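Something for you to look into today, if you have time. What I am after is a single protein written out in full by you. I want to see for myself how the chain folds. Could you add the entry underneath, on a fresh line?
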Amino acid sequence: MRMPEQEPEEGKFAMAPLIDMVFLLLVFFMCASHLNSQKTLPMEIPEASRGVVPKDRPGRHVISIVKDGQVYDGSRPIEVEELKQMVAAEFKANPGMKIYVRADKNAHHKEVKKVMNAMAEVGIADFIFGVYNSPESRKAQGL
């Protein structure tokens, strides 16, 4: 008995998984472009031959001081007294709060000192200062 030959089925292309992947990629790129578009303050970070990147930097409150002495809370300009009040309220809620100070290398030290004094009056004494550690100095240290 002879079996009739079956015609091979034509391959079907499943569109649902492709559509899912396209939407996932779309959401990913929308989120990534939003993160990339966040503004940073233009500043020249001072160089330090022995600067070390701290392990707990991401959880710190960022205060920036630009060349002309303007103080920023994150990327928002703020006066030192207003910053002091805001940080005092935040410090009450989080007593282990730490500060990350980024100052332009051309900023006057008295502006940095004003911020440090304001934070000390609130009760915060744990600071990290942002510095640039050049590749040459890292090689010299053996890092």
Q: What stands out?
A: The CA atoms of residues 13 and 19 lie 12 Å apart. The chain has a mean pLDDT of 82. DSSP finds four helices and five strands in the chain. The radius of gyration is 27 Å.
